[in-house]
Amino acid sequence: MSTYEAAGVDIAAGELAVELMKSRVVRSRRPECVDDASGFAGLFDVSALLKYRRPLLATSTDGVGTKVDLARRLGIYDTIGHDLVGMVVDDLAVCGAEPLFMTDYIACGKVVPERIADIVGGIADACVLAGTALVGGETAEHPGLLEPDEFDVAGAATGVVEADELLGPDRVRPGDVVIALASSGIHSNGYSLVRHILRESTLTLDDTIAELGRTVGEELLTPTRIYALDCLALKNTSTVHAFSHITGGGLAANLARSLPSTVDAVLNRASWTVPPIFQLLQRYGQVAQADLDKTFNLGVGMAAIVPPEAADPILEIAATRGLPAWILGEIIPGTGKATFA
């Protein structure tokens, strides 16, 4: 006799996973959250937006990419959620939006309740750091498509920004200053290259590296820094013209997305020391500098473009929030490119 369980889907395991994650998910709740008795939808009271003159909704979706493979190999599942939230809500922060709520989606070969609870718990914990509510999600078991220990995660978030406070390239002017906000490490981009280096070199996840002060695996699973509340604080207490989330494509390519076609950003390589993990990967993988530049954030996870008189106040605000920041470069007349001096 054919049954759903015989096909590899364990409904009871899925129900247990939901129970295990509930206590952590509730921590991300915002006052605007409304309960849906059926549990099929996440509800959010948008009357809270009546305080806005012209509210614009912003939305973003993303995943973690092949970093999940390293989490699987190391058996560490509670950090991947931070990566997911960071990738999604910090895209919203670029336009100056406050993230309101988020949903997640997990696909796996087999539901292991404790593993799913760790993943979702990490997402919920990160939502607390981002000031956003985790209002719902879905876990799908795909036996035969994914191996029992394989999984992938994705998410989507919605935020709001006042129309006349929308940040972006149209505000950027020659003379503006580019301020770097430090990354916590590789974040969630470039892991296909990382995995290639691990396959093709003598470097392993278990190696303890002196300059890292821990194993390679521990370093590579460092959670993505979440900037959403930091960006809002910078925007609300000083003047910011634009942000740039440094993700796939590297520092220069992402920064160029926040520039109008009339200016260039000139970045000073001497303004910071590239963290050891990037130097390690470059050395073991024999990666050319150009490939390193277009693959990794190199220690800069977010950049702010501000008028010159706001540079010092922005640096002071970042310091009070425990966020390393420094002057990375300047904006000059040009054609919409970011280059290294």
Automatic annotation (TrEMBL):
Family: Belongs to the AIR synthase family.
PurM-like N-terminal domain segment(s): 56-161
Pfam families registered for this protein in UniProt: AIRS (PF00586), AIRS_C (PF02769)
E.C. numbers: 6.3.3.1
UniProt-recorded name of the protein: Phosphoribosylformylglycinamidine cyclo-ligase
NCBIfam families: purM
Primary location recorded for the protein, binned into one broad class: cytoplasm
Domain PurM-like C-terminal: 173-336
PANTHER family: TRIFUNCTIONAL PURINE BIOSYNTHETIC PROTEIN ADENOSINE-3, TRIFUNCTIONAL PURINE BIOSYNTHETIC PROTEIN ADENOSINE-3-RELATED
Catalytic function, reaction form: 2-formamido-N(1)-(5-O-phospho-beta-D-ribosyl)acetamidine + ATP = 5-amino-1-(5-phospho-beta-D-ribosyl)imidazole + ADP + phosphate + H(+)
Keywords linked to the UniProt accession: ATP-binding, Cytoplasm, Ligase, Nucleotide-binding, Purine biosynthesis
Top enzyme class: ligase
InterPro entries in the cross-refs: PurM-like_C_dom, PurM-like_C_sf, PurM-like_N, PurM-like_N_sf, PurM_cligase
Keyword Ligase: yes
Pathway(s) served: Purine metabolism; IMP biosynthesis via de novo pathway; 5-amino-1-(5-phospho-D-ribosyl)imidazole from N(2)-formyl-N(1)-(5-phospho-D-ribosyl)glycinamide: step 2/2
Coiled-coil annotated residue ranges, if any: none
Subcellular location field: Cytoplasm
